[in-house]
Design goal:
This protein is an all-alpha fold. It has one domain: Rhodopsin 7-helix transmembrane proteins (Rhopdopsin 7-helix transmembrane proteins, Up-down Bundle). It is built from ten helices and three strands, in the order E-H-H-E-H-H-H-E-H-H-H-H-H. The chain has helices at about 25-50, 60-85, 95-125, 130-135, 140-165, 180-185, 195-225, 230-265, 270-290, 295-309, and strands at about 10-15, 90-95, 175. The protein has a three-stranded mixed β-sheet with strand order 2-1-3. The longest helix is centred in the middle third of the chain and has 34 residues, at about 95-125.
Length: about 300
């Protein structure tokens, strides 16, 4: 089979979740609904935080940035799939594929780093409550957000570098609804050993370091909570971390499920369903987790809805 260089690849084919024409309207309606719920839910969180002065704190500053990153993360993958279903086309240009890979890595890394910043915020609030306002000052919060953006940009550029080194043959069918980097490695006809090593190194560093920071923070948090004498005090301290811990488990649990499924499962459809959980379902559920488990958000939402009425 004659190989062609990656620079001459004009387009890829995104096979999506199903090739059955009868299922396309159902998939379009389902994913459009989930996308609108995701965007609307995260926008509501951002508006609630911005409109209530009581929520102008480091924790909710990071939460509003997380909501913005979730909107970008879902938009990167779902919008192209909706357009392809509507136009009955499966193609995506090479430049469009690189753009998807870049934004997918950027917003995914941004989510991870913001969750780490929120874990550090909870660590300072519970383990060093008397110094909380001094440590978590606006300057530090802004610096953490800028560092997250810079590291996420570096992550996205490394992903583009990895993909740009690949050479593709005649088979340009991607068994996903977006340009997933592992799938691009799978269809490449050149030697992918170095690219695979680079991909896992990127994942280990940009994913492993934030996870280690979150685990360390919660080990210190749990040890501090256990030293609280009253059960009511323990519950109150842990309740401030409940929403964040739920989102962390959802994000990393679904993300780990996606990459384990791509390495273990042979069925491309099962891998695609695992990817849906990570890229669509998790960002959609985050606003519900924070709004249902957080009294301050509930009050801000009631106040916001009252103003709207």
């Amino acid at each position: 089979m004659e190989s062609q260089n990656v620079t001459r690849v004009s387009a890829f084919l995104l096979l999506g979740l199903s090739e059955d024409p009868e299922l396309q309207p159902l998939l379009f309606g389902l994913f459009l609904t989930m996308y609108l719920v995701t965007v609307f839910g995260n926008l509501i969180i951002m508006l609630a935080v911005g409109s209530d002065s009581r929520l102008h704190t480091p924790m909710y500053f990071f939460l509003s940035n997380l909501s913005l990153a979730d909107i970008g993360f879902t938009s990167t993958t779902v919008l192209k799939m909706l357009v392809n279903i509507q136009t009955q086309s499966k193609s995506i240009t090479y430049a469009g594929c690189l753009t998807q890979v870049s934004f997918y890595a950027f917003f995914g890394c941004m989510d991870s780093l913001l969750l780490t910043s929120m874990a550090y915020d909870r660590f300072v609030a519970i383990c060093h409550p008397l110094h909380y306002t001094v440590i978590m000052n606006p300057r530090l919060c802004g610096l953490l957000a800028l560092i997250s953006i810079f590291i996420s940009f570096l992550d996205s550029q490394l992903h583009i570098l990895m993909v740009s080194q690949l050479t593709f043959c005649m088979n340009l069918e991607i068994s996903q609804f977006f340009c997933d980097p592992p799938e691009l490695l799978h269809i490449a006809c050149s030697d992918t050993f170095s690219s695979t090593v680079l991909l896992y190194c990127i994942g280990a560093f940009f994913g492993g370091v934030p996870v280690s920071g979150i685990i360390f923070s919660y080990i210190r948090i749990i040890s501090s909570i256990l030293r609280v004498p009253s059960s009511e005090g323990k519950y109150k301290a842990f309740s401030t971390c409940g929403s964040h811990l739920s989102v962390v488990c959802l994000f990393y649990g679904t993300g780990m499920g996606e990459y384990l499924s791509s390495a273990v499962l042979s069925s491309s459809k099962k891998v695609a369903m695992a990817t849906v959980m990570y890229t669509v379902v998790a960002p959609m559920l985050n606003p519900f987790i924070y709004s249902l488990r957080n009294r301050d958000i509930k009050k801000a939402l009631r106040k916001l809805l009252g103003r709207t009425s």
